[in-house]
């Protein structure tokens, strides 16, 4: 009693566990600086979900609107879960990469600060050495100034003995060497001091850059962690929604299965009624045929007796007149009775039950997308708007009219024996019923189409029953059906 005829892949009956279990399963951390997996294209995802929902709407037969919606919502949520898991994985991978970058930036900042501290200590030492050298040179210069010169000639002239002269001259050379070494070391230390100052400035600039980089990495890591937390919350919320939808789906599924079972019981009850009526019709037809045969035999016997009587009378008349020896020809035999009218052919006996709409689903076996088993679609569906007039497909007797459980508002018409078989037609999911019993003629208004009972939308589910069992309506409908 669905609206279309194609099947879809079987949907999972049982769902995943709790939201926490989903998060644990989806949250495998991608360590290191590996690139985060690309999130699925939302447009592609939406088109896929829309396609599944459209196919679901096309294939849900014998299914209530509530179950259809629950099934659609459940599958829509299930289709969103992989993207949510991927988003969580991507967010966690980004958070891990940002956290590692933050750690590296912090480590580089610590190294830069250590280098800066060492350079500052070296600069202080070099500055102290330069200051000490300058002080020694100043003291030496002051001493020379106080002694009014310290040249080699002055030392030599002040000598009184040759040995003293030589000693004084050697002392002067030593003093001059010390002086020259002190000046050279001071110049070197001054150059080192300048280099250390430049190096310290560079290290300080590097430390400042590393500090900014570490702060930016920290901000990125914080944002990534927040995004991962948000993705986790969304996934858990989606999982909780799925659990609620699953529970609602299971409840509705149980209710619909119960209703379908009642429909099957009702159908079996109707089958027994139709079988009984067909047997009674066949018994009556046989009795009527026997009565007609007996009447025909009696008529034949009477006709034969009358013929014999006429022949006897003619012989008497002929003999009594003493005429010639010729005799009159016997009376002709009575004409045979006309043959009974041919039984109507099964093809074309029924008329189309609605005058608009198109056939959305034919009679036949199909895999039920919700209940997950092969099931007979027991009739023919006409896609018409609710409130479309529905007409009797042939003359007959209304043997059932009213609520039929999953069939909704239903009318059943018994057409009697057709081609030796008991034929009935049913009209289901009606919005309202116009006839409640008695005889109806072909094309008589019996109700209006709808979506009552177990139905996914406005349509007419039309069935034909042969000897109480479902039969393809195409075997009985005319070419316009």
From TrEMBL:
<dbReference type="InterPro" id="IPR050570">
    <property type="entry name" value="Cell_wall_metabolism_enzyme"/>
</dbReference>
<feature type="domain" description="M23ase beta-sheet core">
    <location>
        <begin position="376"/>
        <end position="469"/>
    </location>
</feature>
<dbReference type="InterPro" id="IPR011055">
    <property type="entry name" value="Dup_hybrid_motif"/>
</dbReference>
<dbReference type="InterPro" id="IPR016047">
    <property type="entry name" value="M23ase_b-sheet_dom"/>
</dbReference>
<feature type="compositionally biased region" description="Basic and acidic residues">
    <location>
        <begin position="299"/>
        <end position="315"/>
    </location>
</feature>
<feature type="region of interest" description="Disordered">
    <location>
        <begin position="299"/>
        <end position="349"/>
    </location>
</feature>
<dbReference type="Pfam" id="PF01551">
    <property type="entry name" value="Peptidase_M23"/>
</dbReference>
<keyword id="KW-0732">Signal</keyword>
<dbReference type="GO" id="GO:0004222">
    <property type="term" value="F:metalloendopeptidase activity"/>
</dbReference>
<keyword id="KW-0175">Coiled coil</keyword>
<feature type="coiled-coil region">
    <location>
        <begin position="88"/>
        <end position="129"/>
    </location>
</feature>
<feature type="compositionally biased region" description="Pro residues">
    <location>
        <begin position="331"/>
        <end position="344"/>
    </location>
</feature>
<protein>
    <submittedName>
        <fullName>Peptidoglycan DD-metalloendopeptidase family protein</fullName>
    </submittedName>
</protein>
